[in-house]
Design brief:
Length: 284
């Protein structure tokens, strides 16, 4: 079985815990994956995520303050030599987007993202006739914001609702989506929080119909390097937002079955191996 370290990121994902909030934002912007690990003598002590950034901006953070003050701690870690399959349970159990890896000395070894887990999955795991409507959260309340609203308005709404994105509307029509990544980008560029969100939202909306298969959603996420899709009905009206975490949660059982099959096949191979060796010897 492959180890978590084999799919982990290492470069540009960790920085000394003494950096400023501004320096941490810059590091997150450059690695393009929404987090930075804070280290103390090579050991991870905190993680700054996009959600942490939203919270800090909401309370008007001084960019010269230490990032450590606003980071999440303690952090969820795993040994780098653990099998990849073990990460699926961790992501769901702890409701996290990434797992920080440690080596045998409890020092930072890398980080595994949800996207890495989706990329790792064999197609047989998710190539089932499962529709998006089957796994979409029922009666999902979509939170919208007008395109002329400010970034500060969006921050307050996202923080209070504990969400990572807002649908941007104009005369009731959905024209874009504002995500944590968009806000991180605006922060890096030192945008005025009074700026209208239409200036920094993602547009057009990447949408998918609720009657499409989950495999279609996975392929679209992989192709666009995105974490979420707006789900629409047959008339194009938004009915929900599907994230890669939603998908991982619902295919976790298939991952367990895949692992069981692999173990069984390996065992059968080992049981057959002595006979094969004997046959080779007899031929000689």
């Amino acid at each position: 079985m492959r180890e978590l370290l084999s799919i982990a990121h290492n470069q540009e994902f960790a920085i000394d815990k003494g950096v400023s909030f501004k320096e941490a934002i810059e590091a997150m912007y450059k690695n393009k994956n929404g987090c930075i690990i804070l280290l103390k003598e090579k050991k991870p002590v905190a993680i700054l995520t996009e959600s942490d950034v939203i919270k800090a901006l909401q309370f008007h953070v001084d960019f010269n303050e230490k990032a450590y003050s606003y980071a999440t701690k303690p952090i969820i870690t795993a040994l780098a030599n653990r099998p990849i399959e073990s990460a699926f349970d961790m992501v769901i159990q702890y409701n996290i987007r990434r797992i920080v890896l440690l080596d045998s000395n409890a020092e930072y070894a890398g980080v595994v993202l949800q996207e890495d887990l989706l990329d790792y999955l064999e197609e047989d795991v998710y190539r089932v006739d499962l529709k998006i409507s089957d796994i979409l959260k029922p009666n999902q309340k979509l939170i919208e914001i007008n395109k002329e609203s400010s970034l500060q308005d969006a921050l307050e709404l996202m923080y209070k609702a504990h969400i990572g994105s807002l649908l941007v509307t104009q005369k009731s029509a959905c024209i874009g989506i504002l995500t944590e990544k968009d806000i991180l980008s605006a922060s890096y560029k030192e945008a005025d929080m009074k700026l209208a969100i239409e200036k920094c939202m993602s547009a057009p909306v990447i949408a998918i119909r609720e009657d499409n298969l989950v495999v279609d959603a996975i392929e679209r996420m992989k192709g666009g390097s995105i974490r979420r899709l707006v789900v629409v009905d047959e008339f194009g009206y938004p009915v929900g937002i599907l994230t890669n975490k939603d998908i991982l949660k619902h295919i976790k059982g298939n991952v367990a079955k895949m692992l069981e099959i692999k173990v069984r096949h390996a065992k059968e191979t080992m049981e057959l191996l002595p006979e094969a060796i004997i046959e080779i010897i007899n031929v000689k």
